[in-house]
Amino acid sequence: MAITLKSPREIDLIRNAGRVVANVLSKLKEISAPGVTTSQLNNTALEITADAGADALFKGVRSPHTANCFPGAICTSINEQIVHGIPSANVELKAGDILSIDFGARLNGYCGDAAVTIGIGKISEERCKLIKVTKGVLDIAIQKAAPGVKWSVIASKMQNYAESLGFSVVRDYVGHGIGRKMHEEPKVPNFLSDELIADDIILSEGMVLAVEPMINAGTAETRTLNDGWTVVTKDGQCSAHFEHTIVIVKNGCEVLTLEKP
Question: Could you tell me how far CA 252 lies from the centroid of its own chain?
């Protein structure tokens, strides 16, 4: 696979796009509450993105399942929805829900991508644990990523951590390289597989990856709804999703989807 290492200039540009992503997600976390519709969140994301001179990456992307293009700037996935939930004026957040928000932006030709899962109002202990564990899976990747490390080693640690606590790792959707395009090589799984072992990724300085574990409370199996986009757990149990865009640097990695200090 052709993995393109990014120059310091390109990393700066991705970092700038990543800050737009971080600012959008920060604001959406702040305003997400019972009674708020997911279309209201989408409109806020569009406003912040436009003010930053950036473009929303997801808007207009064609579905692999139908001819439908994604209508939103953000993906809003609630409870059993894993990824690619469509914002709607008809969908109000309710106390007890968990909401995954995925957002990407392009600024000056380069992309950033991140996701977060939050609780709406008071949520159950089980849902709190799912969110905490999913963030912990992403944290493992960030802590272990460094030049010369095999991704299979990191993916195995991510998978073992989630499964040791009674959760499952989604297999049908994985992370990816990112740069000028939202999806670049390599594919970045959150689990160990024969395919990864056979064609492992050796991390190198300048490699930019969007790492995004999706962790389910029940089975790892998924299905796609008739809208051609929304992916849900096959057993109807909850799912959580966290993502950061990272770059491999000399002594580890740097998260590029952080707000500007």
Answer: 20
Q: What is the pLDDT of residues 87-146, one digit of tens each?
A: 999 999 999 999 999 999 999 999 999 999 999 999 999 999 999 999 999 999 999 999
Q: What is the CATH number of domain 8-255?
A: 3.90.230.10
pLDDT digits (tens, 9 = 90+) for 195-233: 999 999 999 999 999 999 999 999 999 999 999 999 999
Among 92, 102, 98, CA closest to 79: 98
Q: CA 253 to CA 133: how far, in whole Å? A: 21
Please compute, for residue 172, the number of CA atoms within 13 A of its CA located in the half-sphere on the CB side.
14
| Distance in angstroms (rounded) separating the CA atoms of residues 220 and 253 | 28
* Dihedral of alpha carbons 187, 193, 194, 197, sign: positive
User: What is the DSSP code string of 113-148?
Assistant: EEEEEEE-SS--HHHHHHHHHHHHHHHHHHHH--TT
d(CA 258, CA 83): 21
**Exposed/middle/buried for 175, CB within 10 Å: 0-12, 13-18, 19+?**
buried
